[in-house]
Amino acid sequence: MPAKILKIAVPVPLYKCFDYLPAKDTQESVIAGSRVIVPFGKRQLVGIVIAELQQSDIAVSKLKSVIQLLPQPLPAELLDLLQWAASYYQHPLGETLNHALPALLRQVDQKQLLASCWQLSELGQQQEPATLTRAPRQAELLRQLLAQPKGMDKTQLDQLDFNWRDSLRALEKKHWVIRLSQQQAGALHQPALSVSAKPELNTEQTDCVERVANSLDQFQAFLLDGITGSGKTEVYLQLTEQVLLKNQQSLILVPEINLTPQLISRFEQRFSVPIAVLHSGLNNSQRLLAWQQARDNQVKIIIGTRSALFTPLAQPGLIIIDEEHDSSYKQQDNFRYHARDLALVRAKRLNIPLLMGSATPSLESLFNCQQGRYQRLQLRHRAGLASPPAIQLLDARRKPMQQGLSGHLLEAIRETVASGSQVLLFLNRRGYAPTLLCHECGWVMPCPRCDARLTYHHYRQLMRCHHCGHESRPPESCPQCQCTELVNIGIGTERLEQHLKQLFPEQTISRIDSDTTSRKGSLDKKLAEAHSGEADILIGTQMLAKGHDFPHLTLVGILDVDSSLFSSDFRAPEFMAQQLIQVAGRAGRADKPGRVIIQTHHPQHPLLQTLLQHGYAEFAKTALAERQLASFPPYSALALLRAEASQAHLAVKFLEQAFSRLSPYQPAVELFGPFPSPMERRAGRYRHQLLIQSNSRAALQQCMNQVIHTLVDLPDANKVRWSIDIDPQSMF
Ligand code: ADP
Ligand code: ZN
Ligand code: ZN
Does position 185 have pLDDT exceeding 60, yes or no? Predict the structure, then answer.
């Protein structure tokens, strides 16, 4: 009987698996997906068993043994999906698998995993904190535990501002508190499914729901193309209900949890069953708990961002992707997958439908509808009574502007606030001013580490780089001519806010950008203010373009559309159109008609014209035709090989070596470059890239499969940091 050998994927940046012997004296059986602790060099790592082999290329006597077999394997379905993804995205398998596991399952140290969690006993649940007058800490702990029926773990308890251990021990002695392992804590009380009041669907919505419902239990991709406010979320809710009635699970992906509190609360209000919400605010134990609950069929609704796609599902019924066009579905570093594209693969393997919704569908998805791969569902009208906003292009040429605002827009702001409604001004540039200029010689202050200018931040009196985070004090004088007349050119959100505060001293002005919302809880607070109508004028960056329903908002002003009209990235027009329509969609809901004013110095720009005169669908048609002419995706497949190094020539040299490895695959694939990235120097490193393009995705894949793992051995590979991006979303 030959020794059994295990092929194991280890989380290291290498394109191969490693052979190990099973752990000595272990009785438990190992399966594909089992987690194991293995020795790797001087370290120990958690690896995933991929297969059992009968023999190895390495002499058995040289093989090391697995140290320990761990519980909670990666479910087979996810293992398969991730193996496919690692191969498609050309990412090392060990790292890919690691990415999809909750942090606690990646750790060699199992202590935290076995950590306890404390819950009130039945007796404990009947106690009143107020009766513990002589033990205020015990009372506080009891209050906290009453508020957390699922129990609290050490991380949560550590957030209390007193030493909780003694108090906890006291409560345990009274038999008020019981100690559970994390595993037991996962067992949720399952209330019977009840569904609260819901609106009657209009004809279009009914049609959408019926078409998807007819293909539950089989794979089909649907694109729900519906204008903002047309009732897409209501369609998701009613389909989720049907899936629940079949006792199956729905997985719902959203762009950013913080920005979609309304969607989550609508699900929570509608259904009595527990919902797992996966967001960045969860600690590791909570994240693991949600993972286990989904795996064990204890939660039927899972809502999360991109990485929630890798949640195990016991009874999968439906995958929904809200705002499918959103760029946050593409991971931009390490394992560069696209959650929408991978969701399609997963739905197909699970044989369940995938529903993708958007008011501004991606060109890729529209193309897939044309090709008959997706079924297109449309909602053309706003649900309820609301009518779509009136959009106006404002020719800003030769008009006097005050801090970025034309007289016309200013007048509209005045009228709107006077009538008690809300205004949103959209400016995709944070800080005070994007350029510090010497009035004498024209010197502008650059970032010392990037090919970029520093932005002046008035409140903190700092010059900051938005690309690398570099900060410095503003100079007293020009380093070039010593002149002291340095001026701030251009308008950022901070400056706009300051200006509006002077113009509207009586009004509440709220700026929502990453500078004002970095503190925990501050975004929620600001959004609540905006939602309630407490804030009269909102100033926002792209953060505010997504998924908000502000009932008092009737005027949207877009200040700087021009900056996105002339970009070198072939996707820029698509992003611009999506952002514009999404921002415009914020105006006027319920019974208040909305109005959108777009300031531009290029009112004749064909893109703006098509978009505004004929709408997004017509714009998309034109844009797709342009893509076809230029052979850009979706009419071709792209891969981008990026390299960065402390010296420019090293990055170029590596890419030239890669070029020669790739060149035998021409002309099935075409090679462009190496050329410098649009911002060549960033954070002190020089960045270059090589574009690989093919009209046949299969040809591109084949070439990548052959070549990528050989790049590790190129002579200059270890002098650069390199990465491969399949289906890149941005060319930077
Ligand atoms: P979307 O997700 O497309 O932006 P929503 O589902 O949020 O649209 O619907 C917009 C508004 O219309 C919400 O306030 C929602 O409650 C309401 N609504 C949706 N469908 C209906 C319907 N069939 N009848 C009445 N109101 C509806
Ligand atoms: Zn100067
Ligand atoms: Zn910088």
Answer: no
Domains 190-379 and 390-433+490-621 share a fold: yes
Tokens standing for residue 698: 């299969």
The CA 434 to ligand 3 mean position distance, Å, reads 13
484 CA distance to ligand 2 centroid (A)? 8
Let me know the angle formed at the C-alpha of 722 by 721 and 725, rounded to the nearest 5 degrees.
145
CA distance 288 to 113: 9
Domain ranges of the chain: 5-111, 117-180, 190-379, 390-433+490-621, 637-726
Cβ pair 455, 493 in contact under 8 A: no
Q: What is the pTM of this model?
A: 0.88
Ligand 3: centre distance to CA 446 (Å): 8
Q: Of 5 and 584, which is predicted with more confidence?
A: 5
DSSP string, 44-82: EEEEEEEEEES--SS-GGGPPBPSEEESSPPPHHHHHHH
CATH of 5-111, one of 1.10.3720.10, 3.10.450.50, 3.40.1440.60, 3.10.290.10: 3.40.1440.60
Class (C level, CATH) for 637-726: alpha beta
Q: Which residues line ligand 1 (CB under 6 A)?
A: 199-202, 205, 226, 228-234, 383-384
Residue type, 338: H
Assign a CATH topology to domain 190-379.
Rossmann fold (3.40.50)
pLDDT in tens, 369-386: 999 999 999 998 877 656
| 271: CB partners within 8 A, 6+ apart | 193, 194, 195, 196, 240, 241, 244, 301
CA dist., res. 585 & res. 526, Å (int): 20
> What tokens were used for 82?
């991730």
Top CATH class of 390-433+490-621 equals: alpha beta
Nearest to 429 by CA among 487, 510, 513: 513
Q: Which of 45-49, 121-125, 249-253 has the lowest mean pLDDT?
A: 121-125
Atom of ligand 1 nearest to the CA of 234: 6
Q: What is the pLDDT of residues 652-669, one digit of tens each?
A: 999 999 999 999 999 999
